[in-house]
Amino acid sequence: MDLRKQFSIFIVALLFLGATSLGNGVRAIETIGPIARIDSDLPVMYGTEGMIPDTVIIEFQSYADARVAQVVNTFPGVAHEKAMTHRPVARYRILDGATPFETITLLRNMPAIKEVYPNYRRSAQLIPNDPYMQLQLEAMQVARIPAAWDIQTGSNSVLVAVIDTGVDETHPDLLPNLILPGVNVREDGSELVTDDSGHGTAVTGIIGAVGNNGIGIAGIAWSVRILPIRAAGGPNLDCDLFDEVEAIDVARERKANIINLSIGGIGTISIEEKAVTEAYNAGCLIVAAAGNGNPQFPDKLYFKATGDPSIDRHSLYYPAALPEVMGVGSVDNNG
Fold first, then answer.
1. What φ, ψ does residue 68 adopt, rounded to 5°?
2. Among 183, 200, 223, 260, which is least packed by CB within 10 angstroms?
3. 94 and 22, same structural domain?
């Protein structure tokens, strides 16, 4: 049986719980203006909601071009910050107060550059809070998790990559199912995936806390291999689209059967779409939160089904809005 089908019931339920409406769980997303066209020659329009104002993402013609640019920065108005491992792509900091649109216009036709993109913010979608545990248990009933356990309680042949804030690597209810060391794409040169907020630990527990062991809670899959990938963090529990794409590429390279992203935000670029498509074509089931209380979720489903141009794709929640992604909204104890 296709592993994507075999475990979809667990992951659908997971995202229902991972995006559970636990009070004011939605974090504000920065807005810097309306949708704008960069210049008359550029065929792509980018939404500015959620756009990060001080960085751009540069895609190079080749890996060689990317390596040279990393050593010798010849591009005006920007400074190299970070290179992707699996693509000839790098993130650059904007200098001198220019806007992303001005920087893209300046750089996009320069030699060695294939394209320049804006960068977007991604925010975590579950704020763990112990007093809501009973509501989460009731939500498990709504999602019919106990009925799923009657069929199967998990399998250690399945690898789930959890792209989040990391994990508590010493947690006794998680340790038997963790693949350590995990991967850190957020902090250069660090192999630590230690969770600095509890968000990734909570998501990991919902997926794969060992069940029927008399400790803590029971995850949706009692037996499963979980690869923690730290991409988000900090006081805002967020990351940028650049690190999200790097994390998806890592998960694909590590042959994850399932990629879980309890993160998301407004706006997308073709590099994110390519990363998701390549992971899907490699056999990954990709699931992502559509945002706690996200009012655009019905529009997102309609857009995916019809491609209706009247739906503004730049107002949708990504990566959940991409066709290859199983996007899941929120549920509370009332369904």
1. -65, -45
2. 223
3. no
Bridge partners, 228 (sequence order): 162
Instruction: Please report the pLDDT score of residue 102 as a whole number.
Output: 93
| Dihedral sign computed on CA atoms, order 30, 99, 47, 199 | negative
- Same domain for 211 and 144, yes or no, is yes
Assess whether pLDDT exceeds 90 at residue 288. Answer: yes
Q: Is the pLDDT of residue 90 over 50?
A: yes
> In whole angstroms, what is the distance from residue 185 CA to residue 232 CA?
9
CATH number, residue 71: 3.30.70.80
Kindly report the three-state secondary structure assignment for every residue of the chain. Answer: CCHHHHCHHHHHHHHHHHCCCCCCCCCCCCECCCCEECCCCCCCEECCECEEEEEEEEEECCHHHHHHHHHCCCCCCEEEEEECCCCCEEEEEECCCCCHHHHHHHHCCCCCEEEEEEEEEEEECCCCCHHHHHHHHHHHHHCCHHHHHHHCCEEEEEEEEEEECCECCCCCCCHHHECCCCEECCCCCCCCCECCCCHHHHHHHHHHCCCCCCCCCCCCCCEEEEEEEECCECCCCEEEHHHHHHHHHHHHHCCCCEEEECEEEECCCHHHHHHHHHHHHCCCEEEEECCCCCCCHHHHHHHHHHCCCCCCHHHCEECCCCCCEEEECCCCCCC
Q: In terms of residue numbers, what domain contains 99? A: 36-121
Is 334 among the domain residues?
Answer: no
User: Parallel, antiparallel, or unpaired: how do β-strands 51-60 and 89-94 relate?
Assistant: antiparallel
Residue 287 and residue 247 share a domain: yes
> Are 40 and 139 found together in one domain?
no
Greater confidence (247 vs 125) lies with: 247
Which pLDDT belongs to residue 186?
A: 93
Asked whether residue 152 falls in the same domain as residue 208, the answer is yes
Number of domains in the chain: 2
Nearest CA to 34 out of 43, 45, 25 is that of 45
* Block residue for tokens 């975590």: 124
Q: Determine the pLDDT at residue 115.
A: 95
Domain assignment present for residue 22? The answer is yes
